[in-house]
């Protein structure tokens, strides 16, 4: 069993094949983020936010440039029809890529003012898209095109299947990664003061605060994913931390760089792709995730 797996509970190693190894698929980046597996193309697409490009990797073609410039795209997901959705720091918008390759703006204003810099996005089972809107893309010149903050805060928004935009969460300092634990439970990472991941109850267009879900002891949770059995896979300063639904640590995948985000993918949905600072990493698992 690979030495990169560090168990906190006895059954952690059962989540991986006996011969599981952490592999660096590509390197030479500046800050990798936002991986998403695209089944129709058989590839993972990810961002280098500071390099202002997106890239794709597949087993057949290896690493290929996807978009240059990317307008500092960060987080990605697929919508209910399998189309790529992107959070753009530079355009201060959430965008959707159409079949012909063009981009449609899904959200760029709230109540007449520009969004801050959409960061990460997740698909709810009802087909809505939820995204976070901190200010990293306007605060950090290397991660966007600058500008003034026009919103009164850093919020979480919901794009309904019909395109209607609503503001769902307003009580976080710097909302960042998000993932649905179920159709009524949302996990939201806050990378601001007292960084932690919080649990919300989804009630229609809104989300009600429940409790702090967990804190990690190495860095801050940025991106996170949930597998088919409800385990939480969180980015961390030393790799990927895996927790149960109650927020108890099961174990870690040790990665030699700070991890920003991750996604499940591959033909069977059981491969984990990890974006970590200058590299794209991969490890085989025995679980299904999204």
Automatic annotation (TrEMBL):
Ligand binding (substrate): 119
Active site: 222
UniProt domain SMP-30/Gluconolactonase/LRE-like region: residue ranges: 31-277
Organism name: Deinococcus radiophilus
GO MF term set: hydrolase activity; metal ion binding
Residues binding a divalent metal cation: 33, 176, 222
UniProtKB keywords: Hydrolase, Metal-binding, Zinc
Keyword Nucleotide-binding: no
Cofactor(s) listed: Zn(2+)
Name of this chain's protein: SMP-30/gluconolactonase/LRE family protein
Cofactor note (record): Binds 1 divalent metal cation per subunit.
PANTHER family named in the record: LACTONASE DRP35 (PTHR47572:SF4), LIPOPROTEIN-RELATED (PTHR47572)
Pfam families: SGL
